[in-house]
Design brief:
This protein is α+β, with helices and mostly antiparallel strands and 315 residues long. The protein has ten helices and eight strands. It starts with a helix and ends in a 6-residue tail after the last helix.
Length: 315
């Protein structure tokens, strides 16, 4: 073998032994990882907001809630000491234990006059809650002006509605003065409040759940329980003891069946109608209340019937 053949053989061996031992797949993965790493920024480039917990509704974080916004509501409710108030509480307790919690358990039974009133804190520290004081004074003034016309609600029977979710309510009739009261408060305070909602004022919610609709068979059992426990007779005969109560919502849980924590700012007694002058048997009054509701629904146009049956989320 000549020297030229030896040199050529050494060169071939050198070329094949000095190459990278990695396979084509390994080289491909290495190249991909390098390119991906080049696209990812250094972690120090991220700026994370500390403890920024805001819900999709735009509410402040829990520990800053009351220092940012305060929430109020105006209820028409039976007093806790009257037979109607006690029987409603008994119904709530037994319906909870027998059928489980629903969203009506999150509040005491009531007729909502003002659903939710949100008032944001003012910019100046010294006067940050002046709007709250003005709102409370406005409610007090309007109620005192109309108090002689504000009477206890009338019972109109039980009703099971199905839109937007299956619900059991007690239908009530209020004096038009209540609507006048809510409108006056809205006219004076709407521009100063973040939110001020007027409720329908025609029902007292006993059972509903917008998160998971209550089955129709279960709702019938709840209605039967309500009929057997709630003292409607005394309500119809004597009107019972009612009050308007202005509450501040201190804490509200998203859990179904957990009652919101309320602080009563002021309350006003509501006079009952004198029903002693005209004597009508209680059984006939109950039947008349139920039949009047059925008759009203039967003569309403279909579009208005839908409006009557629609159940808004209580406050």
């Amino acid at each position: 073998m000549t020297q030229s053949h030896v040199d050529a053989s050494d060169a071939w061996l050198s070329d094949n032994t000095s190459t990278d031992n990695s396979s084509p797949l390994t080289r491909s993965l290495s190249t991909s990882a390098t390119s991906a790493a080049a696209l990812v920024s250094n972690f120090s480039d991220f700026h994370l907001d500390p403890f920024n917990l805001k819900t999709k509704y735009g509410a402040p974080s829990p520990h800053r809630l009351r220092e940012t916004r305060r929430t109020f509501t105006l209820y028409l409710e039976p007093t806790e000491t009257c037979s109607l108030g006690r029987s409603l509480q008994t119904f709530q307790d037994q319906s909870f234990s027998r059928f489980g919690p629903n969203q009506a358990h999150n509040t005491k039974p009531h007729v909502s006059i003002l659903g939710r009133v949100h008032i944001n804190r003012g910019m100046d520290f010294a006067t940050k809650w002046d709007t709250v004081d003005a709102f409370v004074d406005c409610v007090d003034q309007q109620i005192r002006q109309l108090q002689s016309r504000l009477t206890a609600p009338s019972f109109r029977g039980y009703s099971m509605v199905h839109r937007p979710t299956s619900s059991l309510v007690i239908c009530v009739r209020l004096d038009p003065a209540y609507s006048f009261l809510a409108t006056n408060i809205e006219r004076q305070m709407k521009s100063q409040c973040h939110t001020l909602d007027i409720s329908s004022m025609d029902r007292l919610h006993l059972a509903y759940n917008v998160l998971r609709s209550i089955p129709h068979s279960t709702m019938k059992q709840i209605r039967d329980l309500a009929s057997s426990l709630i003292n409607v007779r005394d309500w119809i005969q004597r009107g019972e003891s009612w009050q308007l109560a202005l509450y501040e919502v201190m804490l509200e849980s998203p859990m179904v069946g957990v009652q919101r924590q309320l602080r009563c700012l002021r309350s006003w007694p509501i006079q009952t109608k004198d029903k002693s002058s005209v004597w009508v048997p209680t059984s006939l009054r109950i039947q008349w209340a139920i039949w009047s509701k059925l008759i009203q629904n039967s003569i309403l146009p279909p579009r208005q019937q839908k409006k009557v049956e629609t159940v808004e989320k209580p406050s």
